[in-house]
User: Which sequence fits this backbone?
């Protein structure tokens, strides 16, 4: 039984199809959780750790690209840590003042389309490329399966964080 009316109803033994469907689901869930929030709500932190909803969204956009494009494919990407202040992966998340919800949701879905291309053309046992995110240091890069699980858990965890923030912001709950 689906957890919600929008949870994938894909009943397939194909793990690549399941990953694609659930990544799409969580991207959509994240976008839905932010719909209807005011600009002030999107840019204001309500949690002690200090992140605002738009900052979480930019993190998810960059996170998916870091793992699938820069990591798995090994392609060079502009500003891979652009979701962090000063490009420092340990720094706080940031969103430029001229970047809004619409642009970030578009970027989220564009990244999803790129991920679906990767999943449609690669095997889960294939390892990420050396030269992008992963150095040639003798440690093999992770498999596509590992990357899929990692990205899926990031989406699930952060969608839950957005549930809480949305409820704190205006009382809205749900999918």
Assistant:
């Amino acid at each position: 039984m689906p957890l919600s009316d929008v949870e994938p109803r894909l009943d397939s033994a194909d793990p690549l199809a399941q990953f694609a469907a659930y990544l799409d689901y969580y991207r959509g869930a994240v976008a839905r959780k932010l719909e209807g929030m005011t600009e002030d709500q999107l840019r204001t932190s309500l949690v002690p750790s200090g992140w605002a909803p738009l900052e979480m969204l930019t993190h998810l956009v960059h996170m998916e690209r870091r793992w699938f494009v820069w990591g798995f494919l090994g392609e060079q990407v502009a500003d891979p840590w652009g979701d962090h202040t000063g490009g420092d992966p340990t720094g706080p998340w940031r969103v430029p003042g001229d970047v809004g919800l619409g642009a970030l949701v578009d970027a989220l879905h564009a990244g999803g389309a790129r991920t679906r291309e990767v999943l449609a053309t690669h095997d889960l046992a294939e390892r990420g490329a050396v030269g992008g995110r992963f150095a040639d240091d003798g440690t093999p890069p992770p498999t596509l399966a590992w990357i899929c699980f990692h990205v899926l858990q990031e989406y699930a965890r952060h969608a839950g964080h957005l549930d809480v923030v949305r409820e704190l912001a205006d009382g809205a709950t749900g999918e």
Remarks:
- The chain has a mean pLDDT of 93.
- The first helix runs from residue 15 to 34.
- The domain at 15-170 is CATH 1.20.120.450 (Four Helix Bundle (Hemerythrin (Met), subunit A)).
- The two ends are 15 Å apart (CA to CA).
